[in-house]
Structures are given as structure tokens and as C-alpha cells.
User: Fold these one by one.
Assistant:
Number 1:
Amino acid sequence: MRDRAERGERSGQAARASATARQGSPRQTATSSQHARFLALHPKAGNAALSRAVAVQRASGRDGGSSSSSRSTSPDADLAYGSDHERPPRGRGADRRSDDDALAYGEFHNEGPYSGTVGGVSFQTERDGGLMKEVRDFVARVSPHFQEELAAAGSVTVRFGRADGGGVGVWKPDSRTVVLNHLQADVRRAGPGRLFGAAVFELLNASKQRRRARLDHQVKSGEFDRLAEREGLPPEKYYGRKVEYIEWKNVVIHRRVMKDARLKGSVADMFSAEPGDFESYYKRQVEGRHTHGYEFYYNLLRTQARARAERGEPGSSTPTSPSSSDSE
């Protein structure tokens, strides 16, 4: 009797186990290492953690298997190059962003293209058109406070892209384009107002392009060396100082524009903490090695001018000018 009872109990346990298997096993408490990382990261504050979590979750294939992606790099490698948008993620274009970025930061605009103008300035984009329209509308709002500079800038196109030096904005004189990086870390932290302020500053830089061209002509002709000697400075140092002075004047104008537009102290008023005198500004630019790029460009101009003179070539052409940028 006891043997039959034990056999019956074992038979019942087997039946219950079989039924459980058919109905689906209860969720196991143990998870894959990647899933565990996701669960650990998700509650943490900060966009970088959430971006990492999304990438890890995607790499796990959502079904516990390995990713079907053909990339040779791991999600961690991608994030190391792309989470703060200081460098382009591997295998991605300079002006593209991944869905991971959009999910992490909640900024997946993707409204499609936009085209608009303010005077001679054209605002163009193939995607994130809503944000570009906000940039255009901001420039239109403050334009009465720097009409002379806008007129001097002439025909300029504003686009989204990656700015030189990892900054928010850059003026590219050769293509007459202002490039704004709407994915840059400062924009992430401070909001679109940072982008608006950069747009105004780069348009101010565009308005001073003729002054820069005259300066470069003096360098190519050799006249600038004589001016530097008169000032008692090495010519490359004097050139860097002169270019920084042009940009400092734009900083002063930018602060005035923000004040007159009743935006003083706003995110767009990005130079509100700048010292009011040129010498303090210049010292900070030198210490940050911003001026170094202009000194290098002076030497490039002179080297090319001498080479053309040795070959007996009439006239000269200017090499690509370093961009004026608010990134430093």
C-alpha cells in the first residue's frame, strides 16, 4: 500500500510539472548579465545612463539572445564616442543621431524639412524642421537690435551639423554657412536657447568677414609683419590678437542685443559672464588655446605667400580660413 501511495505521489508531481511546462514557466529571478545592467542603470538619473541602458537593451535583442547587428563595436564603444556628441559615433554621419539618443533625451523632432528666411539669411534643414523654425523665429525676434550687422553679413545659410572644435556653432566663410550643432552637450544641458544665442553670435562673425579678409591680405602682402614690428610683437601673436579683438567686439554686440531684446540673463545670453574688457577676454582665449589656431593660420598664410613669390606667381589665393566659433 505504501509503495502504491509513493508511486502515486511521484506520478502526481510529474503531471503537475508537465502542466506547468505547457502553461509557461514562471519568470526566473535570474536575468542575463546585459538585462541586469539595464535594470541597474534604468533608475539612475541622467541622460547618459538611460542612453547606455537603451543601447544595452537593444544589443540583447530583447529576447535574451545576441544582437543581430553587424557592427563590430559594442554598445559601450558606440556610447563612448557618441553619448555627449563631442565626437561622431563610429560608422555614423556627422549630422545623424541614433534612436538611442532620441529616446534618452526626448528630442526626436524629425518633423521633416524646413526653409525660412530673415533678411538675407536662409535657414535650411532636411530634418528637425520644427527646431530650425524656432532658430529662425528667434533671430527674427531679435533682428531689430542688430540690423546693421545682419545687412553686413549678406547672404548666409544656417544649417544643422557638427561644428568645428565640438562647439555649438561655427561660421564657415568659404561656404558662407553657419553650422549649428543641435546635438551638442551644452544644448542638451541648457536647452534650445543655447542654440539661439550661438546663431546670433555666428551671424555677427559673418558680418565681420570683410574685416578678416583685409587682415589676411595684409599678411599675404607682408605689410602685417611691419605693423607687428611697430607694436613690438611677433607677427603671429599680433595676428591672433587682432582676430580675437574682432570676435570680442562681437561678444560686446551680442550682450547688447540680448539686453535690448529683454533677454539679459537668459540661456541665449551666453556671454553674460564674460569680463567686460578685451584684455581679460584675450587672456582667457590664449589660456584656452583658442588663439593658437589663429597664430597657426598666420604662419600658413605667410608660408604659402612666400612659396608663390618664389615661383614668381602673380597674386595669391587665400587658404581655407579657420572658422570663427563660440566653442571655446
Number 2:
Amino acid sequence: MTLAAGIDGLFNGISPDWGPFSKLGGKAKIIVGVVMAGAILFLLGSAVVGAVHIRVGGQQHNTMETKKGQTMVASSLVGLFAIASMATIFTIVYGFGI
């Protein structure tokens, strides 16, 4: 798997062409995709900042800083999982409504 194929697969995974989003216009799909990509980038950045807090807290023997980092990493990963599973959740809910 090349890097270009991996990036293309990532962008195809967050493009909103499934479930209720399939009926949106072209510009609306782009806006939804950009919002989802922005949220993913923000959460990944938050996880990196949390990892830095864990590292700094461990080096300085500061348990509060370490705990703050653990909370940031955990909440970022939960948010990433929620965004990644949006396609499945919306498809199931939309299917029940039809």
C-alpha cells in the first residue's frame, strides 16, 4: 500500500456519499467533508498535545499533568472513533427510517 493510496482511502472514507448525505448537492457534500476532516485533524492534534502532557508530566513527576494528558488522549480517541463510525450509524438509522 502506497502513501497516496492510503491518503486517497482516508479521504474517500470521510466523503459524505452514504445514507442521507447521498441526496445532498455537490457543494454541501464538500462542506460536510471539510468539516469532518477538520474535526479529525483537530482531534489528532489534541491527542498529540495530550501525549506531550503525559511525557512532560512523567519527566517532571507531575501527576496532575500526566492525568490531564491521559484524559486528552482518551477523549480524542473516543471522538475519532465517533467520527469514523458516523457512516455506519447514519446508514443504519437512515435505513430504519425508510
